[in-house]
Amino acid sequence: MVQERINRACQQASRHPDTVKLLAVSKTKPLEMVRQALAAGQKDFGENYVQDALDKIPSIQGATWHYIGAIQSNKTRHIAEHFDWVHTVASTKVARRLSSQRSETSAPLNILLQVNVNQESSKAGILAADLPNLVKSICGFERIALRGLMAIPEQSDDVEVQRANFSILASLQKAIQQQFALPQFDQLSMGMSNDLEAAIAEGATWVRIGTLIFGER
């Protein structure tokens, strides 16, 4: 059902379905559910809690793991060692720790910078005005790869409001890509169950879906 919605949204936006990837948010879900999703063809899984993820990752072969939760300094080593992507980086300090703690035998850690597009005090993320300085401060770190932006905009049932918020993130991504000549800075993690169509219309490359895949918590 979720993939059908993604495919329809891509068709409406004149995009190829392969340009949008489904990130299954498996936080708090039991190991067997993740195994079932993997067997059904789902490869990418998102986790919010480090310890919960560490209990699953060694038991699941062939999956790609994304960290999508708040990042505490005392958890960066585990994140750097066990994940393939991190969607929630918003400071030089965290980026530096992830880079220094990433093994040289592993591929560089793919990171997305979280932007607080609506300047909500209750949400994490860097303000848009501060984004260029953050990119400048971390783009030389060797063990991370700057790949794009992530956001969780304010909740709205108005599709035009949804699209306007996602458009902000898409514009920021393009501006940073050009300003810093970062050809791989081409990822946009935005859109969830209630607004994935609007996100895809504005250029999302990752949509983060939990309940529609795994059911209610």
Word description of this protein:
With 217 residues, the protein is of the alpha/beta class. It has one domain: Alpha-Beta Barrel (TIM Barrel), CATH 3.20.20. Helices cover 38% and strands 18% of the residues. It contains nine helices and eight strands. It has an eight-stranded parallel beta sheet. The model has no long low-confidence stretch (mean pLDDT 95).
User: Can you list the strand order of the major beta sheet?
Assistant: 7-6-5-4-3-2-1-8
Q: Compute the number of helices.
A: 9
Percent range of helical residues:
25-40%
CATH architecture: Alpha-Beta Barrel
**Class per helix and strand makeup:** alpha/beta
**CATH class placement:** Alpha Beta
Distance between the termini: 19 Å
Biggest β-sheet description = 8 strands, parallel
* Rg over CA atoms: 17 Å
Extended strand count: 8
Protein topology:
Blueprint: H1 2-12, E1 21-25, H2 31-39, E2 44-47, H3 50-56, E3 64-67, H4 76-82, E4 85-89, H5 92-101, E5 109-114, H6 131-138, E6 144-150, H7 159-179, E7 187-189, H8 196-201, E8 206-209, H9 211-214
Parallel strand pairs: 1-2, 1-8, 2-3, 3-4, 4-5, 5-6, 6-7
Helix pairs in contact: 4-5
Can you summarize this structure?
The chain is of the alpha/beta class and 217 residues long. It has a single domain (7-214), classed as Alanine racemase (TIM Barrel), CATH 3.20.20.10. Helix content is 38%, strand content 18%.
